[in-house]
Amino acid sequence: MQLAREELLRAYKTMKTIREFEERLHVDFATGEIPGFVHLYAGEEASGVGVMMHLDDRDYIASTHRGHGHSIAKGCDVDGMMAEIYGRSDGLCAGKGGSMHIADLDKGMMGANGIVGGGPPLVCGAALANKNLGNGGVAVAFVGDGAFNQGTTAEGMNLAAVWKLPAIFVLENNGYAETTSSSWSIGGGNPVDRAKGFGLPGVSVDGFDFFAVHEAATEAVERARAGEGPSFIETRLSRYYGHFEGDAQTYRGKDEVKKIRESVDALTQFREKVTGAALLDSSDLDAIDNEVAEVIENSVSKAKAAPLPTEADLLTDVYVSY
């Protein structure tokens, strides 16, 4: 599937925005100004963007505790996200969700989730709603290799298959369930075989390659929109930072991340492919780099200047009034 120039520019801009957002949080979290825990998505950009280039506002996603990249790829406002992570009242969730519970239902982003494997059951519900409404919408569950071993994920895939739901399960296998290597923690060795055991067609792709992910997602989304049921995609990739900010990463090999950044980085690969094929000029991408840097800088400045929630806000948004 040949992407138009505008689509290539959008893909690069979204991946670059995620990268710069995360790199800035890595620096700013160390200052102590950001409350709570932060889990960064840097290194995994091609996975989220490659899938969500196919989605629109009728579609839903459920994320993980590593949810910033998914939020940006789904179209959530960067200023609102930064304010939320800083715990400010004009954040997407009024400063009450923070990094691990960031959400925007208006964009179909059902939320980052501190519960490992919490997303697949939610996605089954969203997919069932779209199926009953007949609006052609799909729902996508992003899970890590740790969540892939949770019963909720197995139950979600089984239910989606039985009910023939327009759902897609994306395993972002970054190699570590916190500190546990997925090379031996996933029984059977091949996640695609496990998905096939539930009747889901599946594929495993290079998660650093935007085009490989985009192609796999094309088939899965078309299948779901056509009423042909759920699919499974494994994206093999790596996170550039620890499981959480402050993780010493003593379980990783010497210079492991450095070598990955130098050899297979998603943004570098994208640049080389589109400029090598004369689809985009380096100047186009340089302009995006400058634009994104300004956007992120402004979002941080706005977040730091925004007000904190007040004591009067403490018990609001707790219960829904019918």
Write the layout of secondary structure elements.
Elements: H1 5-29, H2 45-52, E1 60-62, H3 68-73, H4 78-85, H5 119-133, E2 139-144, H6 151-162, E3 167-173, E4 176-177, E5 180-181, H7 182-185, H8 191-197, E6 202-206, H9 210-225, E7 231-236, H10 256-264, H11 266-276, H12 282-305
Parallel strand pairs: 1-2, 2-3, 3-7, 6-7
Antiparallel strand pairs: 4-5
Q: What's this, in brief?
A:
The chain has about 325 residues and is α/β, with parallel strands linked by helices.
Q: Sheet with the most strands?
A: 5 strands, parallel
Number of structural domains? 1
- Main CATH class: Alpha Beta
Radius of gyration, in angstroms, nearest whole number = 19 Å
* Order of strands across the main sheet: 1-2-3-7-6
How many distinct beta strands?
7
| CATH architecture descriptor | 3-Layer(aba) Sandwich
Structural class: alpha/beta
List the total number of helices. Answer: 12
Unreliable parts? none
- Which whole number gives the mean pLDDT? 96
**CATH topology category name:** Rossmann fold
What overall geometry do the principal axes of the alpha carbons give?
globular
H/E element sequence: HHEHHHEHEEEHHEHEHHH
Question: What structural keywords apply?
Answer:
single chain, 322 residues, alpha/beta, Rossmann fold, two-stranded antiparallel sheet
